[in-house]
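Thread amino acids onto this structure.
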């Protein structure tokens, strides 16, 4: 006889809490549940929170400095310098060969744009700045959209709706709901505008590592994906395309990172790191 290994292990003292009972109930019904090590301790949560404060401040500094005519390499320097001056490290730098400290994704670049001295921000551009901080071994991750000067009504709407998708996804994230509940809420809102929700990339657990379980998809059906339990920390980061949801990796990118919309129409993304609490999600970095 073959026994399926349980994801949710018994507590060491053998005393089941209400949390244990709820998780075991869903696991018995065949649902995907977290492993116990995905539930952060109070000490770990505080460490991630402190990292998140630095991460948020980095993006605040970008917001203060960003302007038409600057290069994305200048954004990278701002992020690196602010992060280091506050005792933290940029997680992206040298991560699996990524050459810079931050991702800067302009217009049709969906994500993972590499800062360059030759990428100059122009009036009307929209750009996503995505930064992840490591502070005392704890990770926090967030991104924001910036409109450079005055842009078209179409791009303004895309940026706004992408932010609404993040907010609606966060509202759908309740204790003991499923990842699919978040994705379903996001997809339904994007569909109202005939926008594409990127499927090849997703949010993720974060905190003790850059990327942890669960994968947080931004489309799909309610009741699917992993059960979300108080104490879990994860990102919600919908990538919303003006046209098709399909994307490709830029063949001219020597590092193999930059992701572009298949139809080369603009894309927008907002990302927060969230803690699941007994009452819903709490942002730790934004």
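Threaded sequence (286 positions):
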């Amino acid at each position: 006889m073959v026994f399926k290994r349980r994801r949710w292990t018994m507590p060491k003292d053998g005393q089941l809490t209400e949390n244990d009972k709820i998780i075991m109930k869903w696991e018995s019904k065949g649902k995907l549940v977290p492993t116990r090590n995905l539930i952060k301790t109070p000490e770990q949560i505080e460490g991630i929170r402190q990292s998140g404060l630095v991460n948020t401040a980095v993006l605040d500094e970008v917001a203060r400095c960003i302007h038409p005519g600057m290069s994305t390499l200048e954004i990278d320097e701002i992020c690196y310098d602010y992060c280091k001056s506050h005792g933290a490290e940029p997680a992206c730098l040298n991560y699996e060969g990524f050459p810079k400290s931050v991702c800067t994704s302009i217009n049709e670049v969906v994500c993972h744009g590499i800062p360059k001295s030759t990428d100059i921000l122009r009036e009307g551009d929209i750009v996503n700045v995505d930064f992840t901080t490591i502070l005392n071994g704890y990770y926090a991750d967030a991104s924001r959209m910036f409109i450079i000067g005055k842009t078209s009504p179409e791009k303004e709407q895309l940026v706004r709706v992408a932010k609404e998708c993040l907010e609606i996804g966060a509202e759908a994230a309740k204790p003991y709901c499923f990842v699919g509940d978040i994705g379903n809420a996001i997809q339904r809102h994007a569909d109202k505008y005939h926008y594409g929700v990127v499927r090849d990339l997703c949010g993720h657990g974060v905190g003790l590592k850059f990327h942890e379980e669960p994968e947080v998809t931004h489309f799909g059906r309610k009741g699917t994906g992993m059960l979300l339990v108080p104490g879990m920390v994860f990102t919600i980061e919908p990538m919303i395309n003006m046209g098709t949801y399909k994307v490709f990796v830029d063949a001219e990118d020597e590092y193999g990172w930059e992701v572009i919309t298949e139809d080369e129409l603009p894309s927008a993304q907002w990302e927060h790191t969230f803690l699941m609490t007994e009452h819903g999600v709490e942002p730790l970095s934004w």
